[in-house]
From TrEMBL:
Key word Phosphoprotein present: yes
NCBIfam families linked: cobA_cysG_Cterm, cysG_Nterm, PRK06136.1, PRK10637.1
Protein's name according to its UniProt entry: Siroheme synthase
Organism of this sequence: Bowmanella yangjiangensis
Residues noted as binding NAD(+) in the record, renumbered to the chain: E22, V23, P43, E44
Protein family according to the UniProt entry: Belongs to the precorrin methyltransferase family.
HAMAP family: Siroheme_synth
Job of this protein: Then it catalyzes the NAD-dependent ring dehydrogenation of precorrin-2 to yield sirohydrochlorin. Finally, it catalyzes the ferrochelation of sirohydrochlorin to yield siroheme.
GO molecular function, one term: uroporphyrin-III C-methyltransferase activity
Pathway: Cofactor biosynthesis; adenosylcobalamin biosynthesis; sirohydrochlorin from precorrin-2: step 1/1; Cofactor biosynthesis; adenosylcobalamin biosynthesis; precorrin-2 from uroporphyrinogen III: step 1/1; Porphyrin-containing compound metabolism; siroheme biosynthesis; siroheme from sirohydrochlorin: step 1/1; Porphyrin-containing compound metabolism; siroheme biosynthesis; sirohydrochlorin from precorrin-2: step 1/1
Gene3D superfamilies listed in its UniProt record: Cobalt-precorrin-4 Transmethylase, Domain 1, Methyltransferase, Cobalt-precorrin-4 Transmethylase, Domain 2, NAD(P)-binding Rossmann-like Domain, Sirohaem synthase, dimerisation domain, Siroheme synthase, domain 2
Binding annotation for S-adenosyl-L-methionine: P225, G301, G302, D303, I306, T331, A332, M383, A412
């Protein structure tokens, strides 16, 4: 972040504007919306600035700029048509540690001004740091369209109840829940429709009814296989409401970035053999946070109920009488299959698909091998990378042809996705460079990839 965003209180702010042409006038007009004291210095001033000066809105000095003009200023805008003078003022201002902006000359600027959407008291400021003005305009249009027309009334309405709500709910989290309900519900709807008196009545009634909630809830949320675009709407909404997010290794940084910024994020690890936090401790953590009244999101890779130990976590919550909800996610098998161009049940190849764990225990995998070695069946192994040699050996030993196609998909659906295809006989050798997380797909459907592959990160 090269530019740090901030909002400056203009109540006691002294601003110097050097230049009084059309460009300067645009800045001055914006400044006129604030409480800042504005002094404009320029030998000649355009109509708009003269008019403002005549109405006593600003002080206009019709003369050339002097360095002493900087004495009183806290913030300086430079917009003359003399580039040398602009540079000189910028250097002088910077030497005095003043914040200076030279219009259309980013190199001379100590600060830049954002593009704004002004629905005071609500103010949205955005910047692309000069990198993509058109993108910024595009985004701005989208946001403008998305913002209700009376959003500023809603902000004022909320402000008028702030103290009362604070009195009613001592706890910050409870206050937040209350306000979220207000903004999501009928009260806000009425304000946005322009019916503030009714909204007021409803708000007063709501404050009388709502007893502060003391117990939180846990949401077991599937985060999908990696690509954030594959999150469900519900997952995203809950992530943005969470007080605490408990996540493990499979949840990508891109997805974590979408969690509410103020939420506490707790990493509980879990690599195949290196459990950062034992399951029992994770269960207890969820219970503890929920009992403290927090909205807990337990974020898991893929789907919580597919090799995700989601069931165990819920049992613990039930034992403690804590409310919960499960949000399904796209499991790795679905993600890998789609993004590797391997339809798991193409009707020319397979009538069934089995999801199995390839997790090694004492160097062996305890699976019903004869049931797995069936014709017209696709096998998907989760957690099978370390056990790959055992899987291939057992499948062959139980009658699967050694030239049966097999594919490994590493970090499916992400930009780091890698796919290696081969046969049971040669995959171990071919896939030596593949690292976890990786999924194993066995069956003739793997050959379809040659034709159907579409994702090349
Ligand atoms: N609940 C998860 C699975 C957890 S078990 C789900 O539904 O997807 C962990 C295993 O999932 C890993 O060992 C790996 O085999 C698989 N896996 C998870 N994400 C993956 C990804 N993006 N690419 C490949 N395999 C993945």
């Amino acid at each position: 972040m090269q530019y740090f965003p901030l909002f400056v209180d203009t109540n006691t702010l002294q601003v110097l504007v050097v230049g009084a042409g059309e460009v300067a006038a645009r800045k001055v007009e914006l400044l006129m919306r604030t409480h800042a004291q504005v002094e404009v210095v320029a030998p000649e001033a355009c109509q708009a600035i003269q008019a403002l000066a005549a109405r006593g809105k600003l002080s206009l000095q019709q003369r050339p700029y002097l360095e002493s003009d900087l004495d009183k200023a806290q913030l300086v805008f430079v917009a003359t048509n003399d580039t040398e003078l602009n540079a000189q003022i910028s250097h002088q201002a910077k030497a005095r540690k003043l914040l200076v902006n030279v219009v259309d000359a980013p190199k001379l600027c100590g600060f830049i001004t954002p593009s704004i959407i002004d629905r005071s008291p609500l103010l949205i400021a955005m910047s692309s740091g000069g990198s993509a003005p058109v993108l910024l305009r595009y985004l701005r249009q989208k946001l403008e369209a998305f913002l209700p027309r009376r959003i500023s009334s809603l902000a004022e309405f909320a402000d008028s109840f702030r103290e009362q709500v604070k009195q009613h709910f001592a706890n910050v989290t409870q206050r937040r829940y209350f306000w979220e309900e207000v903004f999501d519900g009928e009260v806000a709807e009425q304000v946005l429709k322009g019916n503030s008196p009714l909204a007021r009545e409803m708000m007063v009634a709501k404050l009388q009814q709502d007893a502060p909630k003391t117990e939180g809830e846990v949401y077991l949320v599937g985060a999908g296989p990696g690509d954030p675009e594959l999150l469900t709407f519900r997952a995203l909404r809950l992530m943005q409401k969470a007080d605490v997010v408990v996540y493990d290794r499979l949840v990508s940084q891109d997805i974590l970035d979408m969690v509410r910024r103020d939420a506490e994020k707790v990493y509980v690890g879990k690599a195949a053999s290196n459990h950062t936090l034992p399951q029992e401790d994770i269960n207890q953590l969820l219970v503890r946070e929920a009992k403290a009244g927090k909205r807990v999101v337990r974020l898991k890779g893929g789907d919580p109920f597919i090799f995700g130990r989601g069931g165990e976590e819920i049992e613990e919550l039930i034992a403690h009488d804590i409310g919960f909800e499960v949000v399904p996610g796209i499991t790795a098998a679905s993600g890998a299959s789609s993004y590797a161009g391997i339809p798991l049940t193409h009707r020319d190849h397979a009538q069934s698909v089995v999801f199995a764990t390839g997790h090694l225990k004492d160097d062996s995998i305890n699976l019903d091998w004869p049931a797995l070695v069936q014709k017209r069946q696709t096998l998907v192994f989760y957690m099978g990378l370390t056990g790959l040699p055992v899987i291939c050996r057992e499948l062959i030993a139980h009658g699967m042809p050694s030239d049966m196609p097999i594919a490994l998909v590493e970090q499916a659906t992400t930009n780091q996705q890698q796919v290696v295809a081969g046969t049971l006989a040669d995959i171990e050798h071919k896939a030596a460079h593949i690292k976890p997380p990786a999924l194993i797909i066995v069956g003739t459907v793997v050959t379809l990839r040659d034709k159907l592959n579409w994702f090349n990160p």
